[in-house]
Structure formats: C-alpha cells, structure tokens
Amino acid sequence: MTTHLPNSIETSENDEVTAANSSKELDAGALFVLKSRGSWLHCGYHLTTSIVAPALLSLPYALSMLGWLAGVACLTIGALVTFYSYNLLSLVLEHHAQLGHRQLRFRDMAKDILGPGWGKYFVGPIQFGVCYGAVIACILLGGQSLKFIYLLSTSKGNMELYQFVTIFGILMIVVAQIPSFHSLRHINLVSLLLSLAYSALALAASLYIGYAKNAQAKDYSINGRGWNRLFGSLNAISIIATTYGNGIIPEIQATIAPPVKGKMFKGLLVCYAVVVTTFFSVAISGYWAFGNQAKGTVIMNFMPDDKPLLPTWILLMTNVFTLLQVAAVTVVYLQPTNEVLEQKFADAKRDQFSIRNVVPRVIFRSLSVVIATTIAAMFPFFGDINAVIGAFGFIPLDFILPVVFYNVTFKPSKQGLMFWGNTLIAIVFSVLGVMGTISSIRQIVVDANEYSFFANV
C-alpha cells in the first residue's frame, strides 16, 4: 500500500476576508514584518535569494574533497532532497491554513505539531542562530568583497579588512530599515539576476583559465589520507548541505497572499531552476579547471599570489555582482531577527509607520546590525564557526524536520513508501548532521593557531 502526497483542499475566496479580519489578532512581528501580500513569483524571488547566495562559489572546493563521482552525487542528492523537503513543509503549512490556523513562523509549526517545548527551546533558538550566523557571515563576505575590489583598483592600499567590514555594515544598517519581508520582492528579483550574472562570469572564467595554453596540470585525486580524508569529506558534505540551506521556508510562505494553495510549489520551481543552473555550472567548471587545488571560493583561484589570471574588469564585475547580491542575502536573513524585535518592541494596535513604532524599529534593527558587524570584524575566521552552525542548524531545519512534520501531520501508512522514505531521510541526515558538526569543530581546533582578532585576511 502506498501513500501519495495529499491534494490541497480548495480554499474559498472568503479566506482573504477572514485573513484580513484576523490580522487584528496578530502580534506586531507577524502583522508588520510577515505581511501576506505576495504572489508565487515574489515567493520565488525570496526563495532564490535565500538559497542561491555567494556561498555557491565554494562548491568547487567541496568537490575537491569528494572527487567527481561522490561530489556530483552529493550535489544532486542535496538538490533533490531539499526540493522534496521544502515541498513537504509547504504542504503542511497549506494543510493548517485550510483548517483555519495559518502558521507564519517555523517555531509556530514546531509548537503546533510537536509541542510547545520544541518551538521554544529547539526550533526557535536553532533558526535564530542559523539566520543570525548567516547575517554575520554575509557581512564578513561583503567586507572581503569590498577589500578585493579595493586591491584590484589600487596597488598602494593600506586599509584593513575590519574597515571594509565596517563600511559594509553601515550600508546594511540602512538597508535593514526596509519595513517588511514583502517589501524586498523587487530587491530579491535583482538579487536573482545578480546570482545568474556572477555565476556566469565564474563559469566563463573557469573555462578560460582551464583552456589556457599555460594552464596548470589538473589533478583530481583527493588530498589527504585516512582520518584527514574522512573529515574532509564530511566538511564537504556540510558545505553542500549549508549551501542548499534555507531555514526560513515558513516565513517566506507567510508573505504569500491567501489563498496559498500551490503557490509555494511554483515559487520552488522558479528557485530550483536558478539553483540547478548556478550550482552545477559553477561547481563542475571550477573543479574541472582547478582540480584538488580549488580554494575556499573559486574567485581565490582566479588571482593566485595576487597575480590575476583574468582581465581585471572581469574580476571587478564578479566581485561587484557578488557584493550587491550579498547585501540582499543579508537583509533576507535579518527578517527572523526583525520579526522578533518587532514582536517585542512594536505596538500592533498602532500604525506601522507611527512614531511609536518607527523609533524602536530603527534603534533595535540598527543595533542588531552593529552587533553582527562587530562580530564579523573581530572574527574574520567566522567561516569555520559558521560551518558548525550550518551543520548543527541547517540540516535539522531543512532535511530532518520537514519530513518529521509531514509524517506527524498526515500520518502516512507505515506500510507505504512515503513513511519509510521520510524516516530514512530523517535518520541519514541526523547521522550526517552529528558527524558534520564533529568535523566542523575539529576544523576549528586545527585552524585555531591561525586565528587572531581583527586579522587582515
């Protein structure tokens, strides 16, 4: 006996009226930040920005630790499993919306499906940590991109990394004031185009360097032996899983205007068309061009020993596109923090743009960005720390909980493929999450001697 995905019950047009009437009961975070006014296309923009980020430029490095067969297999499995799990999560959200209880946040789902403790003590803290960690990492990446552009423009520069991180942080203080998630739809459309642009440049650059007459010999053997190779493979899997990570699917679906039936699936199709195009092209071309010498991001391979292998304008364009897109990614991952701050300090009975609500919004959003910028400047090795956060956070949120939520909500037959397929996904990725966390912590220990506050890396 097999169990099929349930078809959503048709939602009447009166849902919009009901939603409008019930909005008075929403807290300020849900009412102001998670406005339900978007279309499926806007949802696709939000999804793409939250997944297709500059972290994809590290995929050739991940493949260098896995090799061709395992690397491409992990990349493919990551795409299939996340698309499947995000769709399951969407179906659960639709189901509860049809029952008259639309869930707008990940922690709300955990609370309603698994119990209050899960939402308050597990999902809520993990999601907040993952998203705020992504904000810190993006601000650091933005500073590094600014520094790279600066060094390409002048040979006599003496500015240090923390100064560029601070400049990018100031920009983010301004952008963070955008009032709601829905307000980012046009920015996220531009972000989608930017991700396609710098991925195309990275692809072209890798092919150009790989086919050059003086191209280095390509070695596709995997570096290291024994335990080092094992931990390297686990790190690579964590990198791939984190690159596919989202962590805010319920909040993105919350931006869709009712009725929500089928809209998230269309948005996922838009997103994964971009995911497949960018992830596979950059990963395969970068690994083909540089083999096991692929560096942390493929852009680093374009300029070994500060000697560019490409025309300077190509490097500048790639970094400018990356810089602009990482600003959009940063503000997307600020939304869970913004929603919590709005819930705590805004008055839902007052207008969103009243002085009573605008002043605390500006103060606390600015403060959250200042804290993230300070951490990014102090810990320029935050990528290692973020790997732990990713393994411990993105894998549970994006690979494990969606299948658990589905099984608990719809209770598929234990004799069917759906139940055991979901259970297998949960078990396998639970093991990978634990092993990835251990591997990431080990990497921090290995790199600890190279760490220093405000390092100019």
Automatic annotation (TrEMBL):
MF terms in GO: amino acid transmembrane transporter activity; symporter activity
InterPro entries according to UniProt: AA_transpt_TM
GO biological process terms on file: amino acid transmembrane transport; auxin-activated signaling pathway
Membrane topology: Multi-pass membrane protein
One GO cellular component term noted in the UniProt record for this chain: endomembrane system
Keyword Transport: yes
Function: Carrier protein involved in proton-driven auxin influx. Mediates the formation of auxin gradient from developing leaves (site of auxin biosynthesis) to tips by contributing to the loading of auxin in vascular tissues and facilitating acropetal (base to tip) auxin transport within inner tissues of the root apex, and basipetal (tip to base) auxin transport within outer tissues of the root apex. May be involved in lateral roots and nodules formation.
Protein name listed in UniProt: Amino acid transporter transmembrane domain-containing protein
UniProt source species: Manihot esculenta (Cassava)
